[in-house]
Every structure is written in structure tokens, then in C-alpha cells.
Write a structure and sequence with these properties.
The strands form 5 sheets. This protein has an 8-stranded mixed beta sheet. The chain has a 3-stranded antiparallel beta sheet with strand order 1-6-5, with no helix packed on it. Helix 3 packs across helix 4. It is globular. The chain is built from 9 helices and 19 strands. Helices cover 24% and strands 23% of the residues. It is α/β, with parallel strands linked by helices. It has 2 domains: 45 residues, no CATH class; 239 residues, TIM Barrel.
């Protein structure tokens, strides 16, 4: 175990965790909601430091991230536990797991070894994903610090590694402040503005904190690249006005060139009584996003012809063609602009 970074010591050997917006009050011997943090003698410890449940070298487009280092691969790592309980979670085997128990059996990879693996497999970056990265804050921080340090470990490399959090957005501003100096990409789920959605399907009381934290990161750390995802679940968050509200919020608070991915839901875990998202709903959602002023709206989890391609919003040139996770960069300058008209495409090349 490793002592946690963000927590408050309270009378009676109680502690309050400061990693996510649940801000769990944990008595001595108790664990937080995510089941990865335990109070021992009035100190809070993480039980999952270096404990890896999943490890893959993924295309960054799989996150999905389309406008940062397109066509590159990132070493993607996940652990056990989560601060959400999404009834439709596709990684429920690890995210619903008890981190205290799994820590005894999970594979342990020290931060330096993870970075060495990224260099070994010629990854361009490292993503903390598959379950919520905020609960892995201490490990993320140590890994990302090493990723930004040239010529370290067994594999000397002339390039630093980019870093990604694939997050549900429920971290506290304090947690953002800890990780932000070492973070390149913040890929966040904006599921709904409806509190009932979060209460019934996720066991979170309100939607607002996710949007507030995302805006906080954008305003304070403008160099961090943001992309948003809304997994559209029939009957839950497919209302056109709700989708328009999310799109308007992104335009107003993150900018019109922030990529928005509208993705297809498939029945999973405990939400098996809801059918997959009809394709026409996704096409309509994309139309809504574009009508509200977003320049880059992509359909995901559904084979499409050009709705996952990137076009210049000014001259219409095809900048990036995608076929599944195969990416062809056709017309993007090293500065992320359209070579034909000079329009900024909000694409960060490496």
C-alpha cells in the first residue's frame, strides 16, 4: 500500500478522501466507495498502486481521441475499482471489483517498468483507461512524471511520451491540479445533464460536478487537449433537446472545435433490457451537434462512411480518413492546420 496524496485527517482517526467528488468520510479500518482506499490508523492508503488489471497497446483512436497524435499508439493501462457504478459498464469485471481484495492478486507493474514497456513497444504515449483514472491518481502521477523525463530507464528515447486520462469526469479540482502539469489529453464522458440519469444508472447524485470539473480544467489548463463522449442510451439520454444542451455547453465552455463523439450503446452488464442505439439516433445527434455550432462531431461504435472522418470546417477538405482504427492523415500540417486554407483544425500532431 502507498499513502494517498489527497485526504484530510479528522478527529477520531477518521479521514476524508479528496480524490473524487464523493469526498468519502472513512472511519479507521474502513474503505471508500471505490473500494481502493483504506483508512489505517488515521491515514489513508491506496491499495492499487501499481496493480494492473488490463494492458494493451491501443490506437489512440480507440479511446476515442481523434485530434491528438492521430494514427499513433498508446500503451493503455487499467486497474481495479471505480467511483462510479454504471449499470451499462463494458468493463464491469474490473471496475466493479473490490480493489482491496484484488490488490493481493493483480499483476504489479512499477511506474518505471510501465514506461519502459511503452518504449519497448514503440508506443507514442501512455493512457490510463478501462476504469476511472482518478482513483489511480498516485500511480498516474508517478508514471506521467517519468513519461515526461527524457532518457530514463532501460530504453533511451529522444521523445517524451504523451499522457492521457480517459475519465468519467468526477475528479475533484484538487486532483486535477495534481495531475494537470503532466497531462496532455483529457477524454471525458459527458453522459447527460439529467440528475435522474446519474442517480438511476450510475449512483451519483448530480450531473453538474462532471461539467464543472471539465470547465475548471479547460479554463485553468488551456494546453490540455479535451475530447468529449456521449454514449447515447435509448430512453435515457437520447432526447434531442438534451443532446442539444450538451452540444451548446461544449461550444460555450470548451470551444466550437472541441471534438464530440456520439457513440452507440449496446446492452451490457445490468442494463440488458435496453436495445442498442438505432443508427438514425446517432446520425440525428451528429446533426444536432453541428447545428449547435460544433465543428467536429463523430459517430462511434457504428460502421459509417464519412461520419468518423475529419473535414476542414472552412473549405471542406478531407483532412483525416478513418476506417475503423485505421487512420490516414491526408491534409493536416504539422501545426494542425488545413494546408489548403490555413484553418486551425484543433489537431495536435506529434
Amino acid at each position: 500500500m502507498k499513502e494517498a496524496i489527497l485526504y484530510q485527517k479528522l478527529p477520531g482517526e477518521k479521514v476524508r478522501c479528496g480524490v473524487c467528488q464523493r469526498r468519502c468520510l472513512i472511519p479507521e479500518g474502513g474503505v471508500g466507495y471505490c473500494k481502493t482506499r483504506i483508512n489505517r490508523g488515521g491515514k489513508l492508503y491506496t491499495t492499487i498502486y501499481g496493480v494492473v488489471s488490463s494492458l494493451n497497446n491501443d490506437p489512440i483512436e480507440k479511446k476515442p481521441v481523434f485530434h491528438f497524435a492521430p494514427g499513433s499508439f498508446c500503451l493503455s493501462a487499467g486497474t481495479f475499482g471505480c467511483n462510479f457504478r454504471c449499470l451499462f459498464c463494458q468493463n464491469w469485471e474490473i471496475s466493479w471489483a473490490d480493489g482491496v481484495a484484488e490488490a493481493q492478486y493483480g499483476q504489479k507493474i512499477p511506474p518505471q517498468d510501465l514506461v519502459d514497456l511503452a518504449y519497448k513497444y514503440q508506443s507514442a504515449g501512455i493512457a490510463i483507461t478501462y476504469n476511472e483514472p482518478a482513483i489511480w491518481l498516485e500511480y498516474s502521477l508517478d508514471v506521467f512524471k517519468l513519461a515526461k523525463n527524457l532518457k530514463i530507464g532501460k530504453f533511451e528515447n529522444s521523445k517524451i511520451l504523451y499522457t492521457v486520462w480517459v475519465t468519467n469526469g468526477y475528479a475533484t479540482p484538487e486532483a486535477i491540479d495534481v495531475i494537470a502539469p503532466y497531462l496532455d489529453v483529457y477524454r471525458v464522458d459527458l453522459k447527460s445533464f439529467n440528475d435522474n440519469f446519474y442517480q438511476k444508472l450510475i449512483n451519483v447524485p448530480k450531473a453538474a460536478p462532471i461539467f464543472e470539473t471539465t470547465k475548471y480544467l479547460h479554463d485553468k489548463y488551456p494546453n490540455i487537449h479535451i475530447e468529449c463522449v456521449t454514449n447515447i442510451i435509448p430512453g435515457w439520454n437520447d432526447d434531442p433537446e438534451m443532446l442539444a444542451k450538451i452540444a451548446r455547453w461544449i461550444v460555450k465552455n470548451l470551444g466550437e472545435k472541441t471534438p464530440w463523439h456520439v457513440t452507440r450503446f449496446f446492452p451490457y452488464a445490468k442494463l440488458t433490457d435496453v436495445p442498442p442505439t438505432p443508427p438514425e439516433t446517432l446520425y440525428k445527434a451528429r446533426e444536432i451537434g453541428l447545428k449547435e455550432g460544433l465543428k467536429f462531431v463523430y459517430i462511434g461504435n457504428l460502421p459509417v462512411e464519412e461520419e468518423d472522418d475529419t473535414f476542414c470546417p472552412k473549405c471542406g477538405s478531407l483532412a483525416i480518413r478513418r476506417d475503423g482504427y485505421s487512420t490516414q492523415i491526408l491534409a493536416v500540417t504539422s501545426q494542425g492546420k488545413c494546408p489548403k486554407c490555413g484553418e486551425d483544425l484543433n489537431i495536435k500532431m506529434i
